[in-house]
Amino acid sequence: MRISGSFGFEAPPDVVYRLFTDPDALMHATVGLRALRPMGPDLWEAEMKVRLGGFTLAYRGTIAVTDRTSEGYRLRIAAQTEGGAIDADVALCFLPFGTGTRVEYAAEFAIHGAQRLQPALARALIDFFMHGMKEYAARCRQRSGHAAAPHTRPQTDEHTPE
Fold it and tell me: How far apart are CA 131 and CA 135, in angstroms?
């Protein structure tokens, strides 16, 4: 399943780019992420617990940052659980937008073992991640004493299934 869209942030592209590759920010923003252990540059072993209705699934796998350019990179997630798996390949691009940044993404998701829930679950995972990153960035700004930039972002935060 493909999902694409954009999300606005109130910081310059280089700051948002660094945020999206920061292990602490990834821990905060990734749904159910319980552990993130470095395995090498831009590669982490991950443990996740995801609740789906009355079910809780424990996943173990990897998160990798690949194909870095000055404007973006790919985030690859591969995780397995008993009876299922999640594979995600997300292309991220960090573009200037006013005084802030528009993050454009195109994600390819495969959620094995939950086919009927796939579209809603994929959109929810991305939405949670983007809002988590925005919240983490706001906390960092508060701790550093910097005032937030004027609120500039795309007209809406959009997620489009393809």
Answer: 6
Instruction: Report pTM.
Output: 0.70
Q: Cα–Cα distance between 23 and 29 in angstroms, integer?
A: 10
Identify the CA nearest to 144 among candidates 35, 26, 15: 15
- At residue 101's C-alpha, the angle toward residues 97 and 106, to 5°, is 105
- Percent of the chain topping pLDDT 90: 25
Q: Report the candidate in 102, 56, 46 with the shortest Cα–Cα distance to residue 76.
A: 46
Render pLDDT for 18-54 as a digit per residue (tens, 0 to 9). Answer: 888 888 888 888 777 888 899 999 999 988 887 766 6
Whether the CB-CB separation of 68 and 52 falls below 8 Å is answered with no
Give the number of other Cβ atoms within 10 Å of residue 62's Cβ. 13
